[in-house]
């Protein structure tokens, strides 16, 4: 492979084994993937296929047993230690909103800037602007406990975006929400990612969500955990919810489902 | 809402008055001697006599100093040891069984020993108060600093927080509600410790005064001392409860209270 790789994220031969000897469990094996700037890919698979583990390895939250993750030509794991340089442009959203009850909504959104030493006035200004973008205007001073599930995830999204990340990692962030809220938030997510050219990896077990949002869907299988197929989603952007009713989209869902079940 | 609030105040007041009236009626009908059980009115007049004597405030101050000093020592030791053991597994393995064994000793029974070691002055009472107040703070701090969720830690890892930021913005606010609940128990324990210490030895403090009253068979005076001790205990407890509301306004225990009241 050429040294001057233009890929934004490179996942090279990632493997992860939990435990040792007879009790060893293979969580993910030999995952390799290149992503260009602004790519939106989904990791799609049944529960227990190691998709969250793979995402956590990319985020630097879990150490791989073998292989390498390279973000913008920097290795996330250098000599067995998480590189804060490599992960600085990376933001992550989790299944739960993970807002802190001792901070107001705006303070939660501004937290990443506070930790980076940005002055109060500037971070408040940016947090308020971003609250407006994600539809939380008027709730800046509220406590997170006063928000609904969907609004909490909006705040969590705003917190992930406030550092203007180049890479966004999403671990089923809208999985617990109702279908309507989920659609709305997915549309907003897509427009934000497209506008800012953010390279995005979404973990999901929803075939529709994966097909609708992604440029490519990475299908994973379990036992042994591995990537079975990478499928292009050839739909034009910008996409609207109407796309989901079109025959070619429905055909794609059938194809993805076949790939998922064929992996067993 | 207005009637709700009225009932919330009227009901407990009525209970207290019913109790006091029953008490008075019992003393009069059963003709109990005032040396055994004075009436509430006798206690009130003894209490007024007690608090108008300037010497009493010296005794009260001694007891407060002992209880508060013991409490502060217990809080500092309890939080630092609890926090250290929550962070370093080896420390917990090494010391926790030892500390739990110490806790199982009835510490009140050790009080005479503390008097022997630390003398009849304030020091021995402070040590007893601290010994009684330590464990609730320690055990709550150990649980509290360990209860930070891994998912919350992940957020701070992703945000590249340094150790100081982690402590002040994640560990400390997570732990505070539970630590403060331990402190509410501890402040009451430290009061008990100070009084027991004064029972056993020395010539100052409200605990000493209670024993002196009993020896002179001034039973209404003894009750008056108990009332004063109760009021001091209540004040200290309320201060810590206020502190909790002030430091952790987001917590359910506090939020629930403000909704009620």
TrEMBL record, chain A:
GO terms for molecular function: ATP binding; ATP hydrolysis activity. Keywords: ATP-binding, Nucleotide-binding, Transport. InterPro entries: AAA+_ATPase (IPR003593), ABC_transporter-like_ATP-bd (IPR003439), ABC_transporter-like_CS (IPR017871), ABC_transporter_ATP-bind (IPR050166), P-loop_NTPase (IPR027417). Residues 9-247 form the ABC transporter domain. The keyword Calcium does not apply. It holds the Pfam family ABC_tran. Belongs to the ABC transporter superfamily. This is NitT/TauT family transport system ATP-binding protein. The lineage of its organism: Bacteria, Pseudomonadati, Pseudomonadota, Alphaproteobacteria, Hyphomicrobiales.
């Amino acid at each position: 492979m050429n040294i001057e790789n233009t890929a934004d994220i490179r996942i090279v031969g990632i493997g992860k084994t939990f435990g040792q000897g007879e009790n060893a469990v293979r969580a993910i094996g030999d995952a390799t993937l290149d992503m260009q700037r602004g790519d939106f890919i989904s990791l799609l698979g049944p529960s227990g296929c190691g998709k969250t583990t793979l995402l956590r390895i990319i985020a630097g939250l879990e150490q791989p047993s073998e292989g390498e993750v390279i973000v913008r030509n920097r290795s996330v794991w250098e000599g067995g230690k998480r590189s804060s340089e490599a992960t600085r442009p990376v933001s992550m959203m989790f299944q739960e909103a993970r807002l802190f009850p001792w901070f107001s909504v705006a303070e939660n959104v501004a937290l990443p800037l506070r930790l980076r030493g940005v002055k109060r006035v500037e971070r408040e200004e940016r947090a308020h602007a971003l609250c407006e973008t994600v539809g939380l205007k008027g709730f800046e001073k509220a406590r997170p406990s006063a928000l609904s599930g969907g609004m909490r995830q909006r705040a969590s999204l705003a917190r992930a975006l406030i550092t203007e990340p180049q890479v966004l990692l999403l671990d089923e962030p809208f999985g617990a929400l109702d279908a309507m809220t989920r659609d709305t938030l997915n549309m907003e997510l897509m427009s934000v990612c497209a506008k800012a050219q953010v390279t995005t990896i979404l973990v999901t077990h929803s075939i529709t969500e994966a097909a609708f949002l992604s440029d490519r869907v990475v299908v994973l299988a379990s036992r042994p955990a591995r990537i079975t197929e990478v499928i292009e989603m050839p739909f034009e952007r910008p996409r609207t919810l109407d796309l989901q009713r079109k025959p070619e989209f429905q055909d794609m869902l059938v194809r993805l489902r076949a790939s998922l079940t064929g992996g067993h | 809402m207005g009637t709700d609030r009225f009932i919330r105040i009227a009901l407990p007041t009525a209970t207290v008055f019913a109790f006091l009236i029953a008490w008075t009626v019992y003393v009069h009908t059963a003709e109990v001697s005032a040396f055994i059980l004075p009436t509430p009115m006798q206690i009130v007049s003894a209490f007024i006599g007690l608090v108008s004597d300037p010497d009493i405030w010296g005794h009260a101050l001694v007891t407060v100093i002992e209880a508060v000093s013991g409490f502060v020592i217990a809080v500092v030791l309890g939080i630092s040891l609890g926090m250290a053991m929550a962070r370093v597994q080896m420390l917990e393995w090494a010391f926790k069984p030892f500390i739990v064994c110490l806790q199982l000793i009835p510490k009140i029974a050790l009080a005479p020993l503390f008097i022997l070691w630390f003398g009849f002055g304030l020091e021995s009472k402070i040590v007893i108060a601290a010994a009684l107040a330590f464990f609730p703070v320690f055990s709550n701090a150990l649980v509290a600093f360990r209860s930070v969720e891994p998912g919350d830690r992940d957020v701070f890892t992703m945000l590249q927080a340094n150790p100081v930021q982690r402590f002040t913005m994640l560990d400390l606010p997570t732990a505070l509600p539970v630590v403060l609940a331990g402190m509410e128990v501890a402040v009451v324990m430290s009061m008990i410790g100070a009084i027991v210490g004064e029972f056993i030895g020395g010539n100052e403090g409200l605990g000493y005064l209670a024993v002196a009253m009993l020896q002179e068979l001034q039973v209404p005076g003894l009750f008056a001392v108990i009332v004063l001790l109760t009021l001091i205990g209540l004040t200290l407890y309320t201060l810590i409860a206020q502190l909790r509301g002030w430091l952790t306004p987001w917590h359910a225990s506090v939020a629930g209270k403000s909704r009620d009241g």
